[in-house]
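Supplementary Methods, section 5.1.

A reviewer requested that the exact input to the structure prediction be made available. We therefore reproduce it here, unchanged from the version used in the analyses.
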Amino acid sequence: MMDTKMDRRSLFRGAIGTAGILGLESTFGALRTDAAAVGPKDKIKVTKIESFVLKNSWVFVKISTDAGITGWGEMLKDDAKACAAGALEVGHYLIGQDPTRVTHHWQAIHRGAFYRGGPVKTAISSGIDQALWDITGKVYGVPVHRLLGGPTRDKTRVYGTVSEKTGVNAMKVMVRSNKRAPYKYNEGMGFVEEVVDRFKALREKLGKNVDIGVEFHGAVQPPTAMTIMKALEPHHPWFYEEPAQALNVDVMAEMARKTHIPIATGERIFTKWGFKEILEKRAATILQPDICYAGGITELKIIAGMAEAYYSPLAPHNPQGPCSLASSLQLAASIPNFLIQERGDNEYADLLAKPLPPVVGGYRPLLTEPGLGITIDENKLMAQVGEPRPYRTAFDEDDGSVVDW
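The structure derived from this sequence is encoded token-by-token as follows.
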């Protein structure tokens, strides 16, 4: 005798399958996921955590569930192997848990560690957080920004490569002379003039309608940075990024008081507690938290709320891959104080199963697929797994001493 009992999940899958046969995808489309259809009240558990280090040092984490739904996230690249190993250790806590309790898990992972914060610990939380949001969005059949309160904008401005084709009209350049970056404690007049001449030529070439940020990368000593900042002011930089190391917020705050050009910082600052000091001391106007370092989607949503109280916008940092971009775009769609997305014009075709919606007029359309809104092609990803890049070092060409880069 055939068993006529069916659980809710089986019925739900059957409905989706029937919808496909009858051509009713538009009716049930909001309930579909990439791997399985799960009702919001169905129980779902984490079954496995995997991590992957790519040859370019990007670190991915994949979380699997008993419903067949998977979630993806990214972590810090500088300590790639440490992050990859740390993500697996979290499995002792997370496996068997309901993945949709995202904020609860963020708190448990962060507060479960005696030594908290820092780039590696927070990066582990960040990658797992992205993957859990990815799963949760797929469970409910909606993009993450819908779970965060719905879209606050219709599209997302991006910067990267200025192009008539994409309409991107914002970019960022590194501070340097004709030969090298500034790394001496107090660079001479000739060096400073070369830096200014290079920027002036770029401004004249691109015109007034292109926004150009200036990247100091925290690698320029304060006396030199302040001299260059004042010298560049007549050519209207869009912002100055990391004119001082984030380790000394007071120095950056002093610099901010001496220029009318906005200061931007955040790529090496972690969690709400790190950004609290930046905001309170007005060390920066533009915050650039990295969704792979600073605590993931959960934490950046909180940081954005804190920044709004100080009338500060977010321009999320992004030197990584497609999960980093997708997570940042989901955040951007859900907060009111968003400025622009770094490297938002990257396509990541070498890792994705389907293309991103193209950048048009300098804006990326909202990602509307469930979860993060992207699908990782695992075959493409596995082809790039390998030894990460070694640590980078830089030296003064005159005396051989170590300098920042």
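Residues 1-6, 11-36 have pLDDT under 50 and may be disordered. These observations are discussed further in the main text.
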